[in-house]
Amino acid sequence: MSRIVEITELALRDAHQSLLATRMALDDMIPACEDIDNAGYWSVECWGGATFDSCIRFLNEDPWERLRTLRKLMPKSRLQMLLRGQNLLGYRHYEDSVVERFVEKSAANGIDVFRIFDALNDVRNLRTSIAAVKKTGKHAQGAISYTISPLHTVEAFAAMAAELRDMGCDSICIKDMAGLLKPQPAYDLVKAIKQKCGSDTLVHVHAHATTGVTLVSIMKAIEAGCDIVDTAVSSLSLGPGHNPTESLVELLEGTGYETRLNKECVRRISDHFAQIRPRYREFFSENTGVDTEIFKSQIPGGMISNMESQLRGQGAGDRLQEVLEEVSRVRKDAGYPPLVTPSSQIVGSQAVFNVLMGKYKVLTGEFADLMLGYYGSTIGAKDPEVLKKAEAHAKKPAITVRPADLQKPEWESLSAAACALKGSNGSDEDVLTYAMFPQVAPKFFESRAQGRKNLGRDPGKEAPGAEQAAKVPSVAKGGAALSATVNYVITLNGREHRVTVAPEK
Amino acid sequence: MSRIVEITELALRDAHQSLLATRMALDDMIPACEDIDNAGYWSVECWGGATFDSCIRFLNEDPWERLRTLRKLMPKSRLQMLLRGQNLLGYRHYEDSVVERFVEKSAANGIDVFRIFDALNDVRNLRTSIAAVKKTGKHAQGAISYTISPLHTVEAFAAMAAELRDMGCDSICIKDMAGLLKPQPAYDLVKAIKQKCGSDTLVHVHAHATTGVTLVSIMKAIEAGCDIVDTAVSSLSLGPGHNPTESLVELLEGTGYETRLNKECVRRISDHFAQIRPRYREFFSENTGVDTEIFKSQIPGGMISNMESQLRGQGAGDRLQEVLEEVSRVRKDAGYPPLVTPSSQIVGSQAVFNVLMGKYKVLTGEFADLMLGYYGSTIGAKDPEVLKKAEAHAKKPAITVRPADLQKPEWESLSAAACALKGSNGSDEDVLTYAMFPQVAPKFFESRAQGRKNLGRDPGKEAPGAEQAAKVPSVAKGGAALSATVNYVITLNGREHRVTVAPEK
């Protein structure tokens, strides 16, 4: 008798997020739903921060309505979402009642499995959302953001898994967002978690295909007892995306492990997305091969191209290598945070500034906050010199409490602000949309009634307008010395950074 | 202490054959040679049938000169070639003295490792070339064409390996040309060969990436004791090509196995071909993803697209599925030959004819020869009914002797014919070029002095003339019944097929 390996299908969330800039419209998903529902997946990942953001920012689509539609079309499936702990789907720490309301509403609208992670692996940032999921009776999955550093040992990760289990998690996910998980660590980690938390603890592995090594790692994780594995149908797989579902199904033959997937259903799902994918050619990730350079910097490929364009915008397109090396140093100074949204952007941007303007001459507000504990705690100690600069920059002290403990109750004020917006329907869902994307939600509410947009274009037809280019103010290379401190907001790839540039003292 | 896994780099032969239609010019290889020579590879595959053919057919390049150049540029490396046993690099069985001369000249011009295979796994077709290699003192590698059928058991393959060892082979290769080798069979096969032939027998695994499973298979083969593995640098990897060198290097970390490759050299090689690859965009394999459908038909993806265009040319573009199913039946009728050049084309073309014109109504000359033993013996028995048709078609009996035993001494006549050609330089190398490609060599000899061509084009510049389209005569669907037997030659994707169409009786 073979042991069953369960599969989570990523086509509807992380696959198109990684390969098609999260632009896939609901209408291009709907025809595949019946087959997805029948294929025998353990769960169907279909919701998360980027899909939510993309819905309201680009697709004029209500993400809650998308969820309800998918719920209706896949009645037999566990629908899964990715939740950034206390950040929810946004970029700041929310007060607990907002987190509770979000989880409650997500469950009510259709989510069965909540995969909850924190960019810094600070479990205090997961506590409220895990408890909230447990209250709804849904599945709470605690995720470990996998990373490599001198401090991130197998023992340290297993200890975190035990904490997650003790907080009530129904399963543990090893979340490898950059394809860094190699076969032997995968094996050792799954073994250690099973040993530490009990062999009946469900272990779920999520690994991107970026480096070309992780399908082997998945095999090793399975050999070590991993219960559930994430894949994407082959037509939406590989590159910075994920390993192909069909390949995993096939390669297990004869090994003593098998999936319960129906190959014909999977083939039809894959055929569907093979037809859909060319419609999003404009949004393709350029790099669809294998990238092993990431083992050096740990910066995901997508982010490297962002950095490259940022550097080119500053007339420094040739300094990428310096920046990648600086990333390692900045990361060490910050106590070895894993590099995942938002810490990857924060560390990456700071490294760019360090290279362009001198070491910690310019601090982003986010980097100062990271240093000062406002995102949570990191596994390693902070560099004291950089910490001092961060305090001076931010004009506030370092903290050791859970960041959300500093938040005042905010539901009422968020609700009032949201409901006052033109086009808001007054629902809790709208309040949550506004809470998470206060800059984007007003415009979305106003235009929502015009119906959803599909940015896909059949090959051969004219492409829609190019994406809004990243707006980076030009800083003259070797320009005149500053005479006074200047504060400004840099919008970089759609995200705001508060930057202070001060003259040298 | 880790065990060393040795690596053969495929960039200069199979990688561009699989991904760029074998069009890469020597001048695009030369800048990478120093790094390849220093990287620490066990061998560098750089020569074979398709590269030879492409040199004289498309690149006006003397393949022997290419070999001598590579030899000079990589003095420290074992240069490796792929040899089709008694077929050498051509498509018929040569008389033994031609085989001996070819091996002698290949060794003299620079080849160190001869990987020798037979499409049918008939070891009688390997005997002469293995003996010839041994005579030169070079490395004779006997290859097993890996395939899946009810008769191709681990035991059968291990027995073949033992025969190859007994014939003097210095190593055994498991040659998986379609990505069919799954992890468990890979493990079992390496184990069985080591057990049957002795643990000091070098086992070398060659597996295409086509199905997305074989990097895992390679890991399993390594765990079972495999000594050498084929990979291609990442910029020339994946799709119908091979697994990325860098990924294998990285994934072994901590496993107790390691390569001896210098990562910096490998990165530079990969960077070089990343720059070169876009120059051959015109020749790209369209399918660069993963294809697991091949587990059903075993027909390589490249051949499927040939079949599709053949079918479209006959107004039957919608009948591919029928053809793929017919391939399985034709293969069984023919005694389960592995599907590799030329048997894949022979079985594939016959399946197309069966679907278009009725079951064995039209026999290709090659298929009749296959049925009658003129390519060698197959592992299974032939279907007696189809055998009878083949005898009637070919007007000759089935044979059981080694096909080359029917050949009369031919060196003198080949030599005379070659030397009479305009532009021939009278060397044995030219005689061999003519012997293997009698249709193409005359034109090549005549134009050789004009120097080699590079079909690569820098992106943005005008592409050269489109490739010669496949010439398939149109056969009217449901046309008038034939009144007499017609013989004609179909040139399909550059290969001639002698076809007889006879009226129904």
Structural account:
Chain A is of the alpha/beta class. In chain A, 42% of the residues lie in helices and 12% in strands. Chain A has helices spanning 11-19, 26-29, 33-38, 49-57, 63-73, 96-109, 127-136, 154-166, 183-197, 214-223, 245-251, 263-276, 294-297, 301-313, 320-333, 343-357, 365-372, 384-394, 411-419, 428-436, 441-447; strands spanning 3-4, 6-9, 43-47, 79-83, 113-116, 139-145, 171-176, 202-207, 228-231, 257-258, 362-364, 486-492, 495-501. An 8-stranded parallel beta barrel of chain A has the order 2-3-4-5-6-7-8-9, surrounded by 7 helices. In chain A, strand 5, helix 7 (127-136) and strand 6 form a beta-alpha-beta unit. At the A-B interface, helix 9, helix 10 and helix 11 of A face helix 8, helix 9 and helix 10 of B.
Portion of residues in beta strands of chain A equals 5-15%
- Number of strand elements of chain A: 13
Assembly status: homodimer
Largest interface: A-B, 34 and 34 residues
Parts with pLDDT < 50 across at least 5 consecutive residues of chain A:
463-484, 490-498, 501-505
| First-residue to last-residue Cα separation of chain A | 72 Å
- Number of helical elements of chain A: 21
Spatial strand sequence of the major β-sheet of chain A: 2-3-4-5-6-7-8-9
Range of helix content of chain A: 40-55%
Largest sheet of chain A: 8 strands, parallel, barrel
Structural class of chain A: alpha/beta
Average residue-wise pLDDT of chain A: 90
Shape, per Cα inertia axes of chain A? globular
Instruction: Kindly provide the radius of gyration of chain A, computed on alpha-carbon positions and rounded to a whole number of angstroms.
Output: 22 Å
